[in-house]
Write a sequence for this structure.
């Protein structure tokens, strides 16, 4: 699937699924499908402490945002999202968990079934016309002109933006091409672009102008490892310039590397949101013992209530959750455990805690692996 840039003027291919639900650009104020005055109950378990009180500095905010497609599929279910200004916000979830659907609602491409969303303080989709010029976006949906070069596609996107000064167009286009590493391939027709090149072109279009908010749906999709590193560096650079970045991904380590905040989706629902440090801290670290005496170590650790032991080659690792639930902090149990191993004659070559990953946190929170939902 190719991604299409959406900047200012929203163009979405009519052939995309769900195009029929596009609410249209009508900046209507009265006939809202949602209930703008009811913030709705806070349902996300992870909105640690922050109550439902309105925070003006949230660049994106949703309350009870819900999308049920015509076929009955509940793609997004009562989403309460708060994206602080200045954050690099990772929107994380397995395939089919509702990320793109949420982003399409945020950008006014489809109307929510219920609930409210504000972007840059304005209700969406009602304020599409005033909000989108302030947002750079890269979302799914083929909207590149294959017969035009990459460069000329960008010229067209820039020309479609009523706020863009035509006199500086060339400069903007060349700068954007340069930033995404497409200068050398700029004259090539877009239909001859690889997936990664199309992705870069989409990003370039989102970067034509400095924006308050950049919304990127799976920006590293289709990129090789080097390309992924470049895009991550670019995201950091844009954030350092003061742009809030909201990016979706199903790659946990990507989110850990580039984001300050994250929200985790599972089957259309928000599982947790917070700073990446908070989320990773929720993930219980695993005990790792390096030893040639694996079987013996497993016996001793089992006797000391270390759970889910995984014997490996020269190592055993296990879950300390049961120890923590005995009352004393895990830190106090560790030296005792180490002493017990040594006393039993296990040759301990290494002993320590491996930091939990976001994936561990996800599995702990949902009881599920990071797989495609049905
Ligand atoms: N136009 C549509 N009509 C019906 N169902 C849809 C439509 N678009 C998405 N869905 C369904 O909604 C759910 C969420 O899809 P969505 O594209 O939002 O997931 P996602 O998190 O972006 O996944 P991915 O990581 O694969 O991009 C899926 O079950 C999908 O099949
Ligand atoms: Mg998606």
């Amino acid at each position: 699937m190719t991604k299409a840039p959406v900047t200012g003027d929203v163009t979405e291919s009519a052939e995309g699924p769900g195009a029929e639900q596009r609410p249209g650009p009508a900046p209507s104020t009265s006939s809202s499908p949602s209930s703008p005055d009811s913030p709705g109950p806070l349902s996300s378990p992870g909105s640690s402490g922050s109550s439902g009180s309105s925070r003006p500095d949230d660049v994106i905010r949703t309350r009870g945002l819900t999308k049920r497609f015509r076929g009955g599929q509940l793609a997004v279910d009562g989403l309460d999202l708060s994206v602080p200004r200045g954050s690099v916000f990772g929107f994380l979830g397995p395939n089919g968990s509702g990320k793109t659907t949420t982003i399409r609602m945020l950008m006014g491409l489809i109307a929510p079934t219920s609930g409210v969303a504000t972007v840059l303080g304005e209700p969406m989709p009602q304020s599409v016309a005033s909000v989108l010029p302030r947002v750079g976006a890269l979302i799914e949906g083929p909207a590149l002109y294959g017969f035009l070069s990459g460069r000329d596609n960008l010229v067209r996107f820039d020309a479609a933006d009523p706020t863009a000064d035509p006199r500086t167009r060339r400069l903007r286009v060349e700068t954007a091409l340069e930033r995404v590493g497409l200068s050398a391939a700029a004259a090539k027709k877009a239909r001859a672009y690889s997936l990664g090149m199309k992705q870069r072109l989409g990003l370039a279009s989102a970067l034509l102008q400095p924006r308050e908010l950049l919304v990127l749906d799976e920006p590293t999709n289709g990129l090789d490892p080097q390309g992924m590193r470049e895009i991550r560096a670019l995201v950091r650079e844009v954030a350092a310039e003061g742009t809030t970045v909201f990016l979706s991904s199903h790659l946990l380590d990507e989110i850990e590397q580039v984001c300050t905040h994250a929200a985790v989706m599972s089957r259309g629902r928000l599982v947790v949101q917070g700073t990446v440090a908070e989320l990773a801290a929720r993930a219980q670290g695993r005990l790792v013992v390096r030893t040639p005496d694996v079987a013996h170590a497993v016996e001793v650790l089992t006797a000391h209530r270390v759970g889910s032991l995984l014997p490996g080659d020269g190592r055993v690792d296990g879950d300390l959750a049961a120890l923590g639930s005995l009352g004393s902090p895990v830190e106090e149990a560790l030296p005792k455990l180490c002493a017990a191993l040594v006393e039993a004659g296990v040759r301990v070559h290494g002993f320590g805690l491996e930091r939990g990953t976001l994936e561990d946190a996800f599995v702990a929170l949902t009881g599920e692996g990071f797989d495609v939902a049905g």
About this structure: The chain has two domains: 3-27+53-281, 284-354. The chain has a mean pLDDT of 80. Residues 99-100, 140, 217 surround magnesium ion (ligand 2) (CB under 6 Å).
